[in-house]
Amino acid sequence: MKRKLASIQSVIAIEPIPNADAIELARIQGWQCVIKKGELRAGDLGVFLEIDSIPPDDPRFTFLWHNKKDVESTERPAAFRLKTVRLRGMLSQGLLLPIQQFPELIRPFVTGTDVTEILGVTKWEPPLPEMEDIAGPFLPGVPKTDEMRVQSVPSVLDELAGRAYVMTLKCDGTSATFGIHQDTGEFTACGRNWSIKRGSNTYWRVAETYHLEKSLQAHPHLAIQGELVGPGIQKNRLGLNCPQFRVFNVYDQQTCCFLGHDEAVAFLNEIKVPMVDVIEEGLSFDHDMESLLALAEGYYPGTQNEREGLVIRPKTEYQSPTLGGRLSFKVISNRFLLKGGD
Ligand code: ATP
Ligand code: MN
């Protein structure tokens, strides 16, 4: 499922903010967002822009960056994006405006409609970690790595309820996929979007460290996907002193399915490649948004660095109607976001 940066959403509830007379709190999907008081009521429709959105440079959004001391310049600053903030002590994520402010949207209004393109909202992307040595396209047939945020798809909680589940630590590094190309038989290393030239880059160094070429030639349909972590990768929040690999997916290129958790563990033990840390597992998932957001917060082991969050899945693969793909989602730590984590 593709992320909807701007969408039509209905207000679940409006709550007062103590000691504030101009603002109040709105709940939409699994998000909470501070709005101007009196603009919206429960049940109303609004246009919701998620964090990481870059709003268009248009009078409806100018108040977001307009500095009252400098009346002349109303232009959007180059680096502007919607971030996680606290306003009067309240966590606020994204921006919610009444739908009446958007005459360009065509009726009937349907909750969930993606209006990112029509409004000219774009996505802020973190700067690329390093110049990747691109060789060509991604391993054909293998899905690229991605996870949806639970607040944007809250019904995944109902889909997971009662199922055996596993939560793993979201490692703040860079995505890597290794596998045998099914047509050429060639061992291939990929980043988030492309295959990477064989050479003295982190991908190939890590492949060597863990003997991935030999292990995967012995299991030519299995591709492994994980996070490269270590010095020089992102901010090395895990505090490691050498590059490491932490696997979160094992994909069977022949059956076109991800291995279930237990099968993946067994395979990774066999080839001696570490998996991402399991933070919690259980036989019957019964968390709600609040308990998950609390669990997401914490430090990476042995550090004082805020962890990015968790990734949560059933132990056996399940097709999610909400996601239109495998049931799997992320819960990003608000403490991490408030401290400026991307
Ligand atoms: P967004 O879609 O929210 O704008 P994004 O597409 O950059 O952001 P990330 O926040 O990087 O996505 O989250 C997805 C990525 O998290 C995956 O592609 C994977 O590389 C990485 N990741 C790290 N740890 C894990 C884990 N334990 N399980 C699954 N994925 C993980
Ligand atoms: Mn994504």
From TrEMBL:
* Record flagged with keyword Ligase: yes
Q: Does the keyword Ligase apply?
A: yes
Q: Which residues form the RNA ligase domain?
A: 165-332
Query: Known InterPro entries for this protein?
Result: RNA_ligase_dom_REL/Rnl2, RNA_ligase_DRB0094
Write out the entry's keywords from A to Z: Ligase
Q: Which GO terms describe its molecular function?
A: ligase activity
Q: Which NCBIfam families match?
A: RNA_lig_DRB0094
- State the name under which the record lists this protein: RNA ligase (TIGR02306 family)
